[in-house]
Amino acid sequence: MSGETILIVEDNQVLQDGIREILLGEGYHVLCASNGKEALKEMSTFNPDLILSDIAMPEMDGFEFLQAVRSRPEWVTIPFLILTARGEKDDVLAGKSLGAEDYLVKPLTRQELLTAVNARLSRAQEIRLAQLHKAYEDSLTALANAIDVRDPYTRGHVERVTAYAQIIAQQMGCRDGLLEQIRFGSILHDIGKIVIQDEVLLKSNPLSAQEWEKMRQHPITGAEMIKDISYLAAAAPIIRHHHERWDGSGYPDGLKGEEIPLGARIVAVADSFDAMSIDRPYRNGRALEEAYQEILKCSGTHFDPQVVKAFQRAWEQNKIQAIYASTKTKVPSFDST
Ligand SMILES: [Fe+2]
Ligand SMILES: [Fe+2]
Description:
Hypothetical protein af1432; 2 domains; binds fe (ii) ion
């Protein structure tokens, strides 16, 4: 690994030069400072990928510097390695309690230095990727919740549909990439409703033909919205086809059987089940049981029989009921209104 920038904070010039040479030889960019104060000055214009810091230094010692680094949100995740002289156990303990990742005992060999630096940099890279991934998903959910928030009767819908669809997909043996695609598709399946006005979206009376036509556009609008976002594009077919039916009577394209992408067939079951289980004047096991029976009844007409079988297996293992129970409190009660 190379190309990353490492900040060395060390007042012993010989040691600083030695470390610098080794790291430069490995292709790292290197910044140097002789104490914490100088290091903070370097960091006012540049965030290093890793910090190697001595403890005992004039002006600002390593502990004070470490505290300053950890107090800034943008610096919290920078790996911080302490350079300590042999036998300074208290330094190591104090450093770790302040948030240092690791320590290196002076004098250090080239091998020790490179092993520690490489390991910490790869770990930091993994953490950054995981955080980025999580941030993607969180922003997706926030976007999807923009619809949930508008319609109190469907609150929690996205969360439940996503959880049901994941369980069904797992039962069907879907893995990794496909599972993720289905998760994104479930989170965003109704995102196209964002362009539908409140008067239509929240209308309690039956929709007019024209309004219904608008409503039926949401899978197309949703798929269009995300098709150019590279990490979401694979979910576009799920969004577009989540209202298709196995027998070809669905919309928007009237696809039939396996012409409908598997992810969309799975989301269709999860989506309908949730809509039916919350669209009841009572909120208890009965609503859930009735919705479940309805799904079984529509196997082979509305729904792919294989998907229904997977859903049935999950139901028999109580997994569907567990999801419903865990998010139920967020569903508004119809009895009291
Ligand atoms: Fe929908
Ligand atoms: Fe939906």
